[in-house]
Amino acid sequence: MAKQAKTDRQAVIESIRKQQKSAEKRRGTMIVGVCVLVALLIVGAAAYRPLVDWWELRGIQDQALSDIGAPADACGEVTTKKATGSQEHVEPGTPITYDDAPPAFGTHYNVWDEMERKLYIESDRPDVGELVHNLEHGYTILWYDETVAADDAQMDDLRAIAQKLQGTDDLRLKFKAVPWTEEDGEPFPKGQHVALTHWSIGGAGAETTGKQVGVFQYCEAPSGAALEQFMEDYPYMDSPEPTVR
């Protein structure tokens, strides 16, 4: 009888062990499954924006830059202003006040942003002092305000413009589209939400030929047509330091 009781206890113990092992196996499988799911979500999230961008931009390969966004007459007249600040470099983080919103010239940081990136949002944009150094090197910068940043269609236009100007080997593609925020300075003129700037050494339309000027053009919305003409009139070679990337 005692032997039978012992055998029954062993059977119960073995049954409990099997149940525990089965439960542990299920937990392990669930943990692996959850980890795989989290990994897939992370990969999916990382891939989502590029896929959306690709889908939205898939039709621009055959579209001319001048056909993207608003027509050229959405922009006002080009204006110029005597430029100062060439070769006036300061360390990154040094406070700099610019009189213009946005600047086209001035004292700037001793670093600049490389050509690879063409479009930025507020969270990853280089400092204004760094971008002014890009202007000294012949870049055209398209600055856009919070109205454009909050408009999906206009941001799609900026993505399309940036895509058309991709590249790092051709210095004619010295272009960046960056946000201008209230922390940076005064707002653009009323009704204007985009500004094109260039640091010229006296190109087309300069008020004082042969003298450095800042070039400005304000627009109601992003305009590939206006940008194309602006970059033709004020190419990268028309700048204080054109051969530096």
TrEMBL record:
The chain crosses the membrane at residues 28-48. Keywords: Membrane, Transmembrane, Transmembrane helix. The keyword Transmembrane helix applies. The keyword Transmembrane applies. It holds the Pfam family DUF3105. This is DUF3105 domain-containing protein. It comes from Nocardioides gansuensis.
